[in-house]
Design a protein that fits this description.
Length: 210
Amino acid sequence: MQMVSYSEFVPELKLALGDIPDDIAENYIREAVIAFCERSQVLVRKVEIDVQAGVGDYPIIPEGCEQIISLQRVCVGSHCITDRKILLSFEPCETGCTVHGHSVWFVPPNTLNLRPIPTQDKAKAIIAFVAVSPSRDSCECDRIIYDRYHETVINGALARLYLAKTTPWHDRQLAEYHRTLFGAGVSAAGMDRLTGGVRGPFAMRARRII
């Protein structure tokens, strides 16, 4: 997985704003990338989960400095649940959420529950697709964001920066202009959700709680 530092976005901000400190610019870029990923949910990770006998709760921990936004799809064998209303119910449901005789549901922030509890070990028994965003302490983002959505991220950062009242570049009209462009970019990116940023697979194993 190729990553890009937030510093790579900074030169374009400086063209618009002039002498903005690098650390401030990178912080606003980070916030714009997170907001973009949360709203578009275009950055998706494929997770292969090994089930274990006697274990029903499976933590999903993304690689690197990323956090899970939502569960997009869960597959057991060739059967999948795609109804996000079910996947995000946060509790067992009675109908519509079973695959191969198992009830599957998501418990925030990162746990997939499986019932009935498996009676034998099986590698890659569950395939989950999760939408992610960089975490608040991240220093970089997936290169997909830089390559495909660079302009949208810049618009998101500028929309926030132009609202900073104590700065020489404060301009509410420009803030609204870039906010509109950012929203349009998010909407356009939503069309890429199914194929745009799928990465993986990476394997997760259950951790027994004693």
